[in-house]
Amino acid sequence: MENKIKMVVFDMAGTTVDENNVVYKTVQKAINQFGFDVTLDQVLEQGAGKEKLQAIKSVLSTYVDNTDAELAETIYQVFIGELAEAYSTLEILPQPNAVEVFSALMERNILTVLNTGYNRETAETILTKLGWEEGREFDALVTATDVAKNRPNPDMIVYAMDDFSIENGESVIKVGDSIIDIEEGRNAGCIACIGITTGAHTREQLETTSPDYIIDNLIELVSIIDAYSTENA
């Protein structure tokens, strides 16, 4: 039975990777070193899923009415240094059932793509710590530094589709833990945009962007994909 779905694009932190929100905690720490007092919830609300310089700019403009691009860049450089230090000692784990779902997709000849608002260096550091390899656990990685425009623009998903000669988003599913993931998938024309409650945004926050599904565990994705196969049997 041929599956209608050819590719699933997964966000990393909070979706397939459990890193205890260290990225957003580090964003918060870096911003507050410059005399501000933003909360982690504020960072998550405005920054989740975004390329991290843009996340910093969004937090600053929304919560402290600061649009100084030079300051944002300075904070970003502090953030990059502190994140590298944090990742050097942090235990990073797969989200529950992530590897099992990757295997289930492989059995169904469905491509697994990871995409992220991280730069490539950070993303590859995470994958190395997890022991995940391209061509084994997943088929491709696309990062914020690989494309001209970041989420909610569809560039990262389109990049992956082009790489595997997939012409239509009607055979692609996007899975992510933030509102901007859902918007990205919708802008790419994905047949389904799926929110997951294991990361940055709550079920209630995810519901504000009307995803096609909201799941609590990645394993729920398998039955959703199989339903598309049944529809096209």
UniProtKB/TrEMBL annotation:
GO MF, any single term: phosphoglycolate phosphatase activity
Q: Which GO terms describe its cellular component?
A: cytosol
Checking SUPFAM superfamilies in the record gives: HAD-like
Alphabetical keyword list: Hydrolase
Tell me where the transmembrane regions lie: none
Q: Which InterPro entries match?
A: HAD-like_hydrolase_sf, HAD-like_sf, HAD-SF_hydro_IA, HAD_2, HAD_sf, PGP-like_dom2
Look up the record and give one Gene Ontology term from the biological process aspect. Answer: DNA repair
Supply the name of the protein. Answer: HAD-IA family hydrolase
Native organism is Spirosoma arboris
